[in-house]
Amino acid sequence: MTTNEPESVVIIGGGPAGLTAAWELVKDGSNAYDVTLLEESEEFGGIARTVKHDGNRMDIGGHRFFSKDERIMDWWQETLPLQGAPSYDDKKLGRDTHDLEPGGPDPEIEDKVMLKRHRVSRIYWNKHFLDYPISLSLDTLKAMGPKITMKAGFSYLKSMVHKLPEDNLENFYINRFGRVLYSMFFEGYTEKLWGRHPSVISADWGSQRVKGLSISEVLKNAVQKLMPKQRDNSEVETSLIEEFWYPKLGPGQLWETVKDNCEARGVKVKTDAKVVGVNRGADGRIASVLVRHSDGTQETLEADQFISSMPVKDLVEAMDTEQQPVPSDMRHIAEGLPYRDFVTVGLLVKHLKLKNTTDIPTLGNPPIVPDCWIYVQDPGYKVGRLQIFNNWSPYLVKDVDDTVWIGLEYFCEEGDEFWNMSDEDATKFAIHELTRMGVIAGPDDVLDSHRERVKKAYPAYFDTYDQMPELVEYLDSFGNLYCVGRNGQHRYNNMDHSMATSMEAVDNIRTHKTSKNNVWSVNTDKSYHESK
């Protein structure tokens, strides 16, 4: 490479991390980088994509657009500007829209717009709907009853005095909520999510996902909400944030827009491009990747720099060839990294059996409940969480006034009984659970359905996970390889953290920084997530 030639970069993966890296490299229009982005599927956004089905749209997993990193908030708003006029539901429900963006697009006219949303989430437990995150509201105390409430209170006080060593997720939760609340609301749900008991899961997962959340934080938040001073979201624990942004047509809309922007700046985007080989040069750096297409054809792409958001397990497998074997201990760690897979069943229903008992007005005839999410922390159900897409954006639902579009989220293992169910059987199972919960009256209320399966949705924190630092050292030794994103780092990152890893990687490429500690340390420092 001469000084006049652009530096070539191959990016593996068209999810948030890969697309962020691509745009960061080309957004200044300097043509300093020749960028190729490889996506195995035909869709963009990874698990932040939007699934389209007969005029209705599904968000895989639910994606709040909120970050305490101002770079990310600005980045999103530059891609999809904030609404400057009321959305359909704002008008219909007479919402206060004084804080809309002056000069921003009208979502009733423009599609490329970010909506401002209010988050409502609840827990389904023991045939009761409780606040999420769990609070000490009157409804919660009433549902628990005086005996359990007393036990929970004393248990929490004990946890404040007697701290357990945080060498597993169970102790992490007990230290923050007490053993009684842990056993009621966290133990069974965590086992449902991961397929493992919290006692064998690393506390790292809690420190990344729950961070400062505890009973004391919940109480503090409840008291401060009663104060006349308006708090900025930067002052609130992330799990308690009540307002967020959301693309009009779902999260995939933003990533499809980023992809289009990248192509307009010269990024070569290749779909149906699965990386099956990673080749090293004589200098020990990564020299090229071997790409296979579904028609059986293959191509080799050489580059100066490589950014990978593919699962680290698959990356190491692609590196391991007869000519260039991966050391056996590194191969062992990579092969042992576990994942949790994910199935969403979307049900379009005529109406909900649930009544809106809140003071929050909602769409629908009769009005639906206002929840974005309902966490099913009752161990009597396999479903882990419900999404009500009407409340994320009215534009996700073709007939938003007269139908309710619900997503039921199931955690499973690729190839297990639930994963292998036919669409028809999975739909029947979901309808039965929703009926038994009292959310719908029965199968006759269901108008349409769609089942979506997602592989390697959640990197898990057990088995060989505790040996990841050794694997990180090995991967960093190649010099021109950057591992980014949720699967690229085997870390259960939020979308903004995945983006931040790519921003750090691109900054390293620009500045010729050798250490990659900044790339791997995103979302490991508590203060990074909790304060701006």
From TrEMBL:
**What name goes with this protein?**
Amine oxidase:FAD dependent oxidoreductase
Q: Where is each Amine oxidase domain found? A: 17-437
Q: Where is the composition biased (Basic and acidic residues)?
A: 88-101
Identify the Pfam families for this entry: Amino_oxidase (PF01593)
Molecular function GO terms recorded: flavin adenine dinucleotide binding; oxidoreductase activity; UDP-galactopyranose mutase activity
**What organism is this sequence from?**
Bifidobacterium animalis subsp. lactis (Bifidobacterium lactis)
Q: Where is this region: Disordered?
A: 86-108
Q: What are the leading ranks of the lineage?
A: Bacteria, Bacillati, Actinomycetota, Actinomycetes, Bifidobacteriales
The record ties this protein, via Gene3D superfamilies, to: FAD/NAD(P)-binding domain (3.50.50.60)
- The superkingdom listed in its UniProt entry is Bacteria
Q: Which InterPro entries match?
A: Amino_oxidase, FAD/NAD-bd_sf
**One CC-aspect GO term:** cytosol
